[in-house]
Amino acid sequence: MDVRDSYRAAASAALAELREVPGIDFADVRVSREERRAVSLRNRDLDELSTIASAGVGVRVLRGGAWGFASAPDPTEESAVRAARRAAEIAGEVARAQSDPVRMVEEEPVVGTYATPLLEDPFAVPLERVLGDLGDAVGVLLGGGTPSAIRMAIAMARFWRSRKLYMNSEGSDIWQETTFGGAGIKVVAEAEGGGTVQRTWPMDFDGGLAAAGYESVRALDLGGNAARLQGEVLALTTAPPCPAGRATLLLDTPQLALQIHESCGHPTESDRAIGEEISLAGASFLTPDRLGRFTYGATRVNLTADARADGGLGTFGWDDEGVPARVTPLVARGIFVGYLSSRETAARLGLGRSAGCMRAESWNVPPIIRMINVSLEPDPQGPSSLEELVADTRDGILMSQNQSWSIDDLRLNFQFGCEAAWEVKHGKRTRILRNPIYTGSTPSFWRGCEVIGGPDAFRLWGLASCGKGDPVQAMAVGHGCAPARFAGVEVGASR
Amino acid sequence: MTAARPLDVAIAEALRLGAEDVEVSQASTTTEFVRFAHSRFTQVGESRHDLVRVRVLSGGRLGVALCASLQPEELRTAAAQALAIAERVPPLEVAIRFASEGGPADPEPPPPIEGPDLGPEELRRAFDRSAGVAFFGALKRKRRHMAVRTAGGLARAHADQVLQVDFIAQVADGSGWAGWYGPTGRPVDLGGLAQRAADTARRARDPLALEPGKRDVVLAPAAVAELLEWMALASFGARSVLDGTSLLAGREGELLTSPRVTLSEAVGAGDVPFDSEGAARQPVDFFRAGRAGRAVTDLVSAARLGGGRATSGHAAPLTPQMDATDPVPSHLALQPGDRSEEELVGMVEHGVYVTRLHYVNGLLDTRRATMTGMTRDGTFVIEGGRPGRAVRNLRFTDSILDALGDARLGGIGREAACLPTWWSSAGQVETPAVLVKGFHFTGTSR
């Protein structure tokens, strides 16, 4: 029996068990195996090299109008039946303590398969080659000898793969194989006068991730970017701090991706909007009464949730309640028009259908509403590169790569710190500035968006560690954007 | 079969394949959770994971593989993968050996104390005691089992149960928080907690807009805990000292804060007594009477630091995300002072009381512990030594190292609260309230 058949046998056994339980309104079963590989070098030494494999069953039951969830390690029929019984028992307990029943919008049952398109399976790439690619980049970051100011250089690569069977009581039967991963580099130097400065490519923590094979690492050109990073970090060691005041702000795509994540992705999550995440991650200023009428940003601002985007970490065939990958406008011509939703929140908010955003980190936790690929649409007439945007700017500050992030519990007041900034005067980058921060309120910031780059400057980035839920779950999401410019933003330095 | 025996399968397999030394650690957790919003249950379930990490040494090379199963076949596969990795990587630049003694040969940890059943029905009764209040939050009971065994004969195991409850109450535009964390055997008054959150929410209605600026502030224990956690994440692990980004790096023995500040890694009755390498957790001072101490270590980082350092027993915990690799504290404790929280408030003529913080980030300048974040769930003005009207949530951006300096530290409370860490499933912070002068509020939520 191949793995797909054995998973189907386990899921079928769970659903058969639940057919014998009175009061079941809906049930779904996920049987999956996830694998991860992590490799990192620190100053030419091997810092981490490990693999993890995890397999099991998660069962969600709606009984008497109340949810129950249970999971069991090992993807066997016995585990699946055990989890099904426990989920039904929990749902029964909840139903006794609650009178307000859960409702879900309809969704057509589906039988299908999906696989991430790969050119080169990252789990089949010889370890020696991965170590060689990372070692070459670290070598460039450190230079021939280590420049005295440089304290640390890191190169890392990580890959994830999931094989998952989803079945539900309505007849859906879905097999998906998703793969994503990538690499990143970082260099830290000691600044004059104390403190440290850093440069990363393309992002700190997660690196540059894509739903793709090892070809995504090659596309990052770690070696070429390492040389640039080394020069920039050494320049930062003696750079002046970013001056404080109101300025025209230019953001590169890695930083703008995080801005989208925090100030658009999270506040358009419908569970936050109806208060279900208040206790941990907070709520949202994008309340249901504002849907379709609130001016979120300038008319050139269009933000879209798209689970079909090529290479996105939020790309799949179906979400974790069997809803097909969809495209949902969130902000159209500056107006807030859509939510990231589930079958349940779509019913509660009268949205008609789910946006297909129910995702679980693994088999052992229930799916919750997560971002998919939430992207800022490029302006067809916009500049075709970051340098063209700079050339179009008379006076501004360009900030690059995130270093710190914070936003309030309604997703309004934010403050981001970046690794580096450049003063822009008369269309040219002039001096480099260290420890830049910018702060603002979400709608004011996006209403001040005065230029968005064009399709040629658009880049889809991935974040693998978005935390949400309780117990907390990490999720991989995608954000695409072209560089953009914002008027009247409060900027300064963190030190 | 005892819980430790499956680990021997991995040890035997790795030795059979030629490993010179083997360490196998296990972290199994079952979490029962009840989440609620608007006093309605939204997610209720039981989540289980078993994690086993196999580490092998071969020719000075270290190989690591993890699996999420106690099945013999999976454990043997993980052992083989760890060895395959060890055979293909460069040698470690430092020499280490896995632990070889500790605990009885075949430990069976005593069963944890079962607390009373607490679930939706008990929560419903707690909600009903505060009419007109909407409750949000979660109740979580974690059953944890940790074990470590090595080829050299070390065998340690531990089992416990902890309960965490968080209530956020909303009354109109007012919000309040109350929480509890500790072993399941202790009595928990759910109704009393809910009422405390509700009382704060009622006081927090109709908040004033307060202009940003420097203000004296009393930070309640939950707010202090989050700042200390960030300081620990950025600076109290050996990795950050090696990188030079820690505020402790190169400063051991220097007076960095007020002499009234002693901040330590404590080892208490409720803590897991060993780390994921099987090393006994040692107490470590980060600040002793204001003077900089040392960071916590694991086997490799202690060797890299040199100078004869041994592990302090703080290897990163095993997590399903495989995202923790640096040594971290697990029980931060700020030594209490001699004033009640009420007395601290009484010392402030014009200031702000902060119940809790939201989305703090401590990476702005780790050498000075410069952080930013927002207040939430109950922020009040203090006038004439008494708490007054609620104010809108405020953003702060400040150096916490400076805030704890003698010039700005106004006082430390005497009653410490115990709060769970968010970076680990097995950590806690024990801290009283703190009075800081001139805390820098840099923005406000509108």
Instruction: Quickly give the structural class of chain B.
Output: alpha+beta
Unreliable residue runs of chain A = none
Low-confidence stretches of chain B: none
| Rounded radius of gyration of chain B (Å) | 23 Å
How many helices of chain A does DSSP assign?
Answer: 10
Largest interface: A-B, 81 and 83 residues
Percent of residues in β-strands of chain B: 35-45%
Mean pLDDT of chain B: 92
Number of domains of chain B: 2
Question: How many individual helices of chain B?
Answer: 9
What is the general shape of chain A?
Answer: globular
Beta-sheet strand percentage of chain A? Answer: 35-45%
Radius of gyration of chain A: 24 Å
Straight-line distance between termini of chain B: 59 Å
Label the structural class of chain A.
Answer: alpha+beta
Strand order, main sheet of chain B: write it out: 3-2-1-4-5-6
Oligomer: heterodimer
Report on the biggest sheet of chain A.
Answer: 8 strands, mixed
